[in-house]
Amino acid sequence: MLSNIVVLTQSSSFITGPIAKIFGAIMDAIYNLFSKIGINNLGISIILFTIIVRLLMLPLAFKQQKSMIGMQEIQPKLKKIQDKYKNKKDVESQNKMRMEMSQLYQEHNVSPFGGCLPLLIQFPIIMSLFAVLRKIPAYIMSIKGIYLSIIASIRNVADHATYLTSLNDASKMPIKNFDVTNNNQVIDLMSTFTSTKFNEFVDYFNSVSSTVGDQIAPLVRQLNDVNYFLGINLADNPNLMSIGLLIPVLNVVVQFLVSKTTMSMNNKNMDEKQATTNKAMMYTMPLITVFFVVSMPAGLGLYWLTSSAFQLVQQIILNKHLKKDIKK
């Protein structure tokens, strides 16, 4: 099902494409800023980039959380209205029920859809974030420059086109209409390489031309240096038998705390059935998270971890602040 997917260097989607370009420019600026003081590390860039984007999204998060807390506060009154019309299914009674509920929303300045709208707005933003993080070389020009140097060297090998085409054909997600003369497509292909695949790549060119092998080996090491963060290669899926295990483990712990904090906020005034459902979600969400994190490059797992940690702190601070406001 994933075969023949068209992989573009930058997102060209009508909605997410322009947002991804803005995020890409931010990511590029962060990387270059640290590069000027001799730190060429993708992990630090991902962490700072995630914090900046989460700060930009803070007004939406504030609005969403305020709406959720407001809805929780009026739940007992809403239930009273629903119980009052429980056995009255005629049109007139149902209209009266809706009117009373609407008045209650207005009195407390809340909307049942107030929590959904910020979520809908955040969706294209999150998709744009993923577009940037999945295609780092397309947005960080200095990293793209390393890939271009590798391409310039391997083009001196006569059968490089045949080799690159065979790598694309063997890929889990081959690029449709792959053109070896298109640098962006070749970068797209190489950006999917794990460290093991890159070692095989260097060995191949070294075997056909030691000159080319000597040229690309330091460039690949440079890419590895960029990708390594605290001993974890962010281009690889987390290695569960190494320190890479920290990425999924920490994600599970933080996601559990996020779910628990959300549940403690939402369970107030909820009936037993809703509380049971929330409790099930508290244990299910971390398991879903670990499934995604171990199946994608550790760089995305690092983004997920940073984002969840930010969300946890944000929820605790906003809850405290908003509850004080409601009590006034």
From TrEMBL:
It is found in: Cell membrane; Membrane. The chain crosses the membrane at residues 12-34, 41-62, 110-133, 145-164, 240-259, 280-305. Its main location: membrane. It is a multi-pass membrane protein. The keyword rRNA-binding does not apply. Pfam families: 60KD_IMP. GO terms for cellular component: plasma membrane. The keyword Protein transport applies. Keywords: Cell membrane, Chaperone, Membrane, Protein transport, Transmembrane, Transmembrane helix, Transport. GO terms for molecular function: membrane insertase activity. Residues 43-320 form the Membrane insertase YidC/Oxa/ALB C-terminal domain. GO terms for biological process: protein insertion into membrane; protein transport. NCBIfam families: yidC_oxa1_cterm. Belongs to the OXA1/ALB3/YidC family. This is Membrane insertase YidC/Oxa/ALB C-terminal domain-containing protein.
